[in-house]
Amino acid sequence: MLIDAHAHLNDERLTGLTDEILALFGEYGVESAVCASYDERSSVVAAELAEKYENVFAAAAFHPHEAKSYTQEHADLFRRLAAKKSIVAIGETGLDYYYDLSPREVQRRVFAEHLALADELKLPVVVHVRDAYEDTLGILSGNAARLRHGVLIHNFSGDAEIMRRFNAFDCYYSFGGTLTFKNNKRGIEAFLNAPRERVLLETDCPYLTPAPHRGKLNFPYYVRYVAEKGSELLGVPYTEFDALTNGNTKRFYGLK
To answer: Which pLDDT does position 76 carry in this prediction?
Structure first.
């Protein structure tokens, strides 16, 4: 069954809808979802959801947009969550030079600190990158010794050449609703060039809703549409692609 490797059930637009959302997992052939975070509140909510629901897992971090608010107190919070087994990854962290909602030097510092914390906690790290590939690669290179537990480039949007450079760090790649967009030629090319043993599926809900629901609110069970498109593009049976991405996701996050 499918796993949504990166969702935001902690988004305020989905508050109070968790039971309703999870009730539809079986109908869409979805096993579980990983709830990624972006600040203190979302990290706490993600951990609470993971503690309450056996098919929800949590990742805690400060998104680059919120990097300016990150302190060592938050690192201590993440340590406590990890000690309780409430989180399975540090994420999402990284760099976003498109919006620049936090100063770039702060984004870079917090990203590096998140990588160090993930290594300390023996957790994989989930990376957001937008218009910042060179600096992201540079920080990964400078922290290569701290990447022992896995790196996921979520919602990968680079080209095949950028992917080749990320491959030097044995990165995993998750693909979401944009894979179903008709004019996303670069994304499809990257997907086709991705190492199959490191491909994950995601929704990034409530954002980036796949066709045929594009333009509406996104939900974790819509990962089904991403899987259908992925199996079509690769020319492999749906059940085979489902099993492949399920295994990849469990291996990356250390899920049973």
So the answer is: 98
**Cβ of 134: how many Cβ atoms within 10 Å?**
12
pLDDT tens digits, one per residue of 193-212: 999 999 999 999 999 999 99
Question: Do the Cβ atoms of 202 and 4 come closer than 8 Å?
Answer: yes
10: tokens are: 């902690």
- 201 forms beta bridges with 175
| CA atoms lying within 13 Å on the CB side of residue 119 | 13
Strands 199-201 and 125-130, bridge-based pairing: unpaired
SS3 label, residue 154: coil
- Interval 169-187 mean pLDDT: 96
* Residue 134 tokens, joined: 């060179």
- Global pTM value: 0.98
What is the bridge-based pairing of β-strands 125-130 and 151-153? Answer: parallel
Residue 256 has pLDDT above 90, yes or no: no
146 pLDDT above the threshold of 90:
yes
Q: Tokens in use for 58? A: 């949590």
Contact 180, 226 (CB under 8 A): yes
Q: Yes or no: is domain 2-253 CATH 3.40.309.10?
A: no
Do residues 59 and 90 touch, judged by C-beta distance below 8 A? yes
Tokens matching residue 148: 């022992």
